TrEMBL record, chains A, B:
The keyword Cytoplasm applies. InterPro entries: aa-tRNA-synth_II, aa-tRNA-synth_II/BPL/LPL, Anticodon-bd, Anticodon-bd_dom_sf, His-tRNA-ligase, HisRS-like_core, HisRS/HisZ. Keywords: Aminoacyl-tRNA synthetase, ATP-binding, Cytoplasm, Ligase, Nucleotide-binding, Protein biosynthesis. Homodimer. It is an enzyme of class 6 (ligase). Pfam families: HGTP_anticodon, tRNA-synt_His. It catalyses: tRNA(His) + L-histidine + ATP = L-histidyl-tRNA(His) + AMP + diphosphate + H(+). GO terms for molecular function: ATP binding; histidine-tRNA ligase activity. Its main location: cytoplasm. This is Histidine--tRNA ligase. GO terms for biological process: histidyl-tRNA aminoacylation. It comes from the Bacteria.
Length: 440, 440
């Protein structure tokens, strides 16, 4: 009996074109992370369940892939990279010089209801700055997001900034005092893009029994968005600092971070305050942010994060502050595709070498060696078949050039070069001439 | 109640030093794979159990992490990258131009008994050439192994070559005829490094009831190893081609591959025939190989592989031939460490910028931006603390240089550069002068 070759629902393969594009994207952003001194770490995909469930929300506990291993241990697959980071920091606290800046690229697992664009296994790409309360760290994370976007060729984007204390302060001002109520309110407000203001109003009314008037004022306040320059904007919101201590703290910290950012060579229109940014996650305690690509608003945030003050609370009584962000890799790939910034190739080689006779194969391999030594990735078609078949293989995979070795070429120790895009063929070139054309 | 921060037995974290070294190693070898036109693909860590168990040995089925998912599906974590490749090839057969050359870097899971140097989750790094029977593909895999070793700075290594038909032919010649008996014999002979010739003799005697004399002759034959040059060696073993058809086929195919390899610019002493290479795995059908580092013989093979003819048999009636190898990443890391070829740094940044006053922090960030634009990875210490503490952070992590910004430097728009290895400090340099020193 044959087995049907298929992936599990909600899981997927990356074919070469996607995998090449993903590799390139990761190479670019990890290069940015490293340019700021973030270091890679690696933790297992599987952990003791207790390590993961203590910090996860109820929602996430339901989605956890959890089972007994061979030794009867209660284990689970990680659902994010932050909880393993908390475990890691607590475990190696004495070996890690603080502040600790790490990045990680790895897959996480959530048994969510399968739906379009949502996968049960997906790659997270996180970078975090642990063990310092300095606002300079928050600013650096914004800098890294900025540099990452530029490295990917994305020019028109906005990093939307907010502060959990601002949201808390606004909630308190409008009479929402309990921590759980505030979190509930923020969770609902965060859904505004999905369910619209009416939906949010209805849910707020039902969940928190607020008056229509309060809800209206609350939504108006959380919809404040910076459209003018820094001085003007902060002058305009300055009166809110009087509302309560939380608002004061939030606005002042945002201003401090602005001060650092404005001194750097970043386009000032690329980051702006937006009081509607709530980040659903309960663990944020300071400045928070989301990143949208201007031409692709409906895509949602492609890089989000913020400061959290209780990273290691599950494992240690000492508190440890951190700030970090996560790149939404899958969304970003969709976005880059839409912007025409993704490579459409299914090959990593620029050249395919083609032979029409067994006799020339060894010359073909020697020519390939020479191209590789000149840093040109080169593939040799391994069999002797029709020229047409070999050229169509190059076409399908996206090689830029074919190098053809036939009788004439063999005799003259030369090669024929075909540009696969233009179709232009140059016969019997020397290796050096061909290399020059390929490298130009 | 606090949770103890710990990993599962047999699982491990990579701290920055190890993770940086591993990343570098992977970057080098994947660059080699891509230079030959191998393309990356990605498959999920989790599959339907039936997809994985049909091809796995009994041993591996016992070690499988297998459980029911939320939808009651019988699922398991992959234990290698070859079975998922077989599923992948069968599933996308019509979309993939053949021959298909893929590489993959990813983690696999085996619930083995925990022991030193063996992990339950480990990274596999495979490259395979699918859909062609040409010996040129076998030769190319050897070329890739060769180029990979050189790219890692390993110069003294041997790729040991053998052929499953040679082993089958030898077994048949000594009266071991049944396929299961042959596999059993090969599995036992493969243990020679672990249990010695006496151990192997004893096991062969018990399992196959061979006479002492036959065992002696069998072991003598399988211990044939090429010590002389190609012509001489193949002349010496030529009479064995008369023993039976299997031996004839095996020796001739090895000779054909030798012909291709000898035409390339590879050091001829780096690959040699060795009849004792058995590769425990039943699925090999053609040329097989292992790679040892000369100075680290006890390490075992760091890159092994071979040709298999029935890759997709679980999923399809059509047979599909492939040839490929797998880099033993963990072993290789141990080996490179022993050879002193591993980076000992815990940082990805070359420079740490240090400030002694809040006032200079923004200048520090601007200087960092300039270094990064000149492609020098640069970290800024995010807090204002004692100079000594910041320098000791740079020492611990392994930054090559510290850049110190104090009162003098701030006033003169200059910087002080300290070489962390030599301790030499140059005061109040211009940025360009400092850059020149760092880049020299």
């Amino acid at each position: 009996m044959l087995v049907t070759p298929r992936t599990l629902s909600g899981f997927r393969d990356h074919l070469p074109k996607e995998a090449i594009a993903k590799e390139k994207l990761l190479k670019k952003v990890t290069q940015v992370f490293e340019s700021f001194g973030f270091v890679p770490i690696e933790t297992p995909h599987m952990e003791y369940a207790e390590v993961l469930i203590k910090q996860g929300s109820k929602e996430i506990q339901k989605e956890l892939y959890r089972f007994q291993d061979h030794g009867g241990r209660d284990v689970a697959l990680r659902f994010d990279q932050t909880v393993p980071l908390a475990r890691f920091i607590s475990q190696y606290r004495n070996e890690l010089p603080l502040p600790f800046k790490r990045y990680v690229v790895g897959n996480v697992f959530r048994g969510e209801r399968a739906q379009r664009g949502r996968y049960r296994e997906f790659t997270q790409c996180d970078f975090d700055f642990i063990g310092s309360n300095s606002i300079a760290c928050d600013a650096e994370i914004i800098q890294v997001i900025y540099a990452s976007m530029l490295s990917l060729g994305i020019e028109d984007f906005t990093i939307w900034l907010n502060h959990r204390s601002i949201l808390n302060g606004i909630c308190q001002y409008f009479g929402i005092k309990e921590e759980t109520d505030i979190q509930n309110a923020l969770r609902i407000i965060d859904k505004i893009d999905k369910i619209g203001p009416e939906g949010v109003s209805a849910e707020l009314k039902e969940a928190l029994r607020l008056t229509d008037k309060t809800i209206e004022a609350l939504l108006k306040t959380t919809s404040i968005k910076q459209t003018q320059d820094k001085e003007e904007f902060f002058a305009e919101i300055a009166p809110m600092k009087q509302w309560n201590a939380e608002l004061k703290k939030g606005i002042e910290e945002l201003e401090q971070m602005y001060q650092i950012l404005q001194d750097l060579e970043m386009d000032k229109s690329s980051y702006r305050v937006n009081f509607s940014i709530a980040r659903g996650l309960a663990y944020y305690t300071g400045i928070i942010y989301e990143t949208t690509i201007t031409r692709l608003k409906s895509l949602g945030s492609v890089c989000s994060g913020g400061r959290y003050d209780n990273l290691t609370k599950t494992f240690s009584k000492e508190s440890m502050s951190g700030v970090g962000a996560s790149i939404g890799l899958d969304r970003l790939l969709v976005g880059l595709e839409d912007l025409g910034l993704l490579s459409q190739k299914s090959t990593t080689a620029r050249i395919l070498i083609i032979c029409t006779n067994e006799k020339y194969l060894s010359l073909a391999h020697r020519i390939a060696e020479s191209f590789r030594r000149s840093e040109v990735n080169t593939e040799v078609y391994p069999e002797i078949t029709k020229l047409k078949k070999q050229l169509s293989y190059a076409d399908q995979k996206g090689h830029e050039f074919s190098v053809i070795i036939g009788e004439e070429e063999y005799k003259n120790r030369a090669l024929t070069l075909k540009n696969m895009t233009t179709g232009i063929q140059l016969d019997c070139l020397s290796f050096l001439k061909a290399l020059e054309i390929i490298k130009s």
